[in-house]
Amino acid sequence: MLSLERLRALCAVAEHGSIGAAARALHVTPSGVSQQLGKFEREVGVTLLVPAGRGVQLTDAGRLLARRGQEAISLLAQAESEVVSLDRDVVGELRIGSFSSAGRVVVPTAVATLRSRHPQLAVSFSAGETEELIPAIVRRELDLAVVDSWVTMPLHLPEDAVHTLVHRDSADVALSRDHPLASRDHVDLDEIADMPWTTWKKGAVFHTWLVQTLRNRGIEPDIRYEAPEFAAQLEFVAHGLAAALVPRLARVWVPDNVAIVPVRPTLEREIYALRRADNDRPTVRAGIEALTEAFAGVGA
After folding, report:
1. Which of 36, 185, 192, 256 is within CB 3.0–4.6 Å of 9 for a Cys-Cys bond?
2. Bridge partners, residue 170, by sequence
């Protein structure tokens, strides 16, 4: 019978690319991982790793065992989830992650609901961007993640993940109140094509989304001011220096000299509660329920 602990070590090396990275993911020392892999090689009687530069590379046998090992670990996790699901008591631990605006506006309400309904449930939270949260779900570092997918930049989800729609959000344009279009009921993106823009730094999801959204309309955006938060971007808008696209969920505070105007076409995103397919525990189901209720209280 193969050791599950040694299978986990091999799978971690296959996933993260090095013994050091695998050790960090498993929260053990690199020497501990090396010892487990050495024992594993002696146990199966074949070489699983070979040196490759400063790191290691899996042999054909190592890749085969890592692939089968991931399947075995997933099946065990699913079996554990199914057994736990037989008990309706929501107890244990629930690790939630979320992108920043939902983490600030909605998740605390959901966590408070969970703690009130299920006193024996220990809930933890960590913030991150959607592109960071998805791998954390895959690596089992989180049980539940709140992620977003813009219609103009759809999210690609892994096959072993299940998503539940919990909210629909949209973005409006922020203009200085003395801008000629600020008093309109709505503006077309084409009408503000030649304006300077403020958004997040290049490489951030919102920067990529703004560029892609405007390019889809044949607009090459003139991005002059990059700031890592919407509050700072709105200050540039308030001084008449730029326009900004701001999701409604992120609109916690708007300066007096800024007008928020709906745009056409509507810029919509879907917000999902994401979990692994093999993790359908009562704790996770309770988390999805609490998040759905909390988002319902936000409105569109």
Report:
1. 36
2. 268
Structural domains of the chain in order of their starting residue, each with its CATH number: 4-85 (1.10.10.10), 92-167+269-296 (3.40.190.10), 169-268 (3.40.190.290)
Over range 54-81, report the average pLDDT: 77
Can you tell me the mean pLDDT for 115-137?
93
Condensed to tens digits (0 to 9), the pLDDT of residues 76-113 reads 776 666 655 545 668 889 999 999 999 998 999 999 99
d(CA 244, CA 226): 11
Torsion sign, CA atoms 155, 103, 97, 166: negative
Residue 37 burial by CB count (10 A; 0-12/13-18/19+): exposed, middle or buried?
buried
pTM: predicted TM-score of the whole model, two decimal places: 0.72
Residues 68, 73, 74: CA angle, nearest 5 degrees: 95
**Chain mean pLDDT for the chain:** 89
Determine contact, residues 126/161, Cβ cutoff 8 Å.
no
Q: Which two tokens stand for residue 169?
A: 């959000």
Contacts of 128 (CB under 8 A, 6+ apart): 97, 98, 99, 136
